[in-house]
Structure formats: structure tokens, C-alpha cells
Amino acid sequence: MSLTFDALLLDLSGVLYDDNKVIDGAIDCVREARHLGLQLRFVTNTATRSHHRILQQLLGMGFSIESRELYTAPRAAATYLEQHNLSPLALVHPAIASEFSHLTKTQPNCVVLGDARDGLTYEALNQAFRLCHQGLPLIGIGLNRYFNGSNGLMLDAGGFITGLAWAAQVEPIIMGKPSVKFYQHIVASTGLNAKQCLMVGDDVAADVVGAVAAGLQACLVQTGKFRANDLHQLPQEARTIASINDLFKAYAR
Asked: What does the mean pLDDT of the chain come to?
């Protein structure tokens, strides 16, 4: 089979699985991608599970994946802090606190904000605001508006990051989708150029618009948190498919 891409970047929740249930055809799609010799990258902004936990979850579901193929926004944020000698006030979910604990010192010189759920209290956000108002960096773990949870759509960290940045008059540094630098980093790991890479996701802004801005091909799946109104935001260069099960039929030459 001849395809229009040589590397496949896959979002996780809403594309491969939905509420811990594997989406029909997802495991076969990954298996076929390997059979075709495609480079695979699994790309997620999930900020409520560690890199190791996500990897074990995917393996437990039956997906074939190596640790080096998994790119998470929290891991990218921690790497950025290490490279820039930053010590954060980390407003993150307890499940990923260990990703930042070794970087935390008495006096923070930046703020890291992610999907901390109940940790995003007024007191905590106000503490972050005071630091950012002094001009300290605000690092956001992804910039998603919402996600599809077990009880329906749930507010994600993007609104809190945007509100804090607006109030403190700072420009947030986004680690994860839709950051162009995040996509560029993943593309560089493949040794290919951006046009040879296809990003598949259920979030039109983070997965599709973000990928197109970075020069990748992009595809929106109509599973997960997809809503019909998302089609109005779909870039002209992008495509849409009913589910991951239709991917290879849609992109066969």
C-alpha cells in the first residue's frame, strides 16, 4: 500500500481509546502501520498520568509501543525546565508531581500549570498570578480547552493558562499541543520533514490546526470529543475521517 505519509503521529484519548475502551480498529491500525514500515509517535497532552503509567496503559490495552515513541506534554515541560535551570511552582495533578519534584526548590522562579483538577483553587492560582506578575515564566502543559471524561466534557487547563496569562500580562510558553515547537521536536525525532508526517487527533485546535501550523499533514477523527461544529475550524489542507479504522483507506494513493 502506498500512502501520502511516512510517519504517523497519533493522539491517544479519543483516537485510540475512549474512557479506557479501545476504539474499534485502533489496535489493527497500529499493527498495520508497523507492517507498512511507518514511523510511529504517540502524542498526548494528558497531564493526569505519568509517562510510565501511560505507556503501561497502552501496552495493557494491547497496543504495540516503545517508550521512545511516546511524547507527553508533562515530560516536555520537565525537560524544558531542566534545560533552562528553572524551579517551578507546579500546579499539576498529583499523578505527575514526581515529574517535577526533583526540580522544585524553596523559591520558585517560574510557574508550571496543567490539569491539576481540584488543585486549581483560587488560592493556588493567585499565588501563581503573583509570580507571573513579577515577570516570571508561565509554562503551560498543553492548551486544550476541554476533554472527554467519564462524565462527559470537562474543562481542561487551557482556560486557566489563558486567564492567568491575560491577568499577569505574560505570554505563556506551551509545552505540548498545539505548540509548533513541540511538533517540530517530534518531527525531528523521525528524521523526516514535516510534510512526510501525518498527525491524527480528535481535537481540531490542538491536533489539527496546531499540526498544520507546524507544516504537517493532519486528520480529524470523528470520535472522542469531536463535535460537528469542529468542521467549521478544519483547515483546508486537513481531512476528516469517521474513525481511526478508516485511516489507510483515506490516505492510500
From this structure: 95
* Helix, coil or strand: residue 140: strand
Q: In angstroms, rounded to a whole number, what is the distance separating the alpha carbons of residues 43 and 92?
A: 19
- Predicted local distance difference test score (pLDDT) of residue 6: 97
Confidence of residue 139 (pLDDT cuts 50, 70, 90): very high
CATH of the domain at 103: 3.40.50.1000
Alpha-carbon torsion (126, 131, 132, 134), positive or negative: positive
pTM of the model: 0.90
State how far Cα 77 lies from the chain centre.
Answer: 12
Q: Is residue 159 part of a domain?
A: yes
- For residue 171, pLDDT beyond 80: yes
Residue 14 pLDDT: 95
One domain for residues 169 and 182: no
**Residue 175 phi/psi, 5° resolution?**
-105, 115
Residue 2 amino acid letter:
S
Q: Which residues of 12-51 are buried (b: 16+ CB within 10 A; e: fewer)?
A: bbbbbbbeeeebebbbebbeebeeeebbbbbbbbbbbbbb
Tell me how far apart the alpha carbons of residues 200 and 185 are, in angstroms, rounded to a whole number. Answer: 17
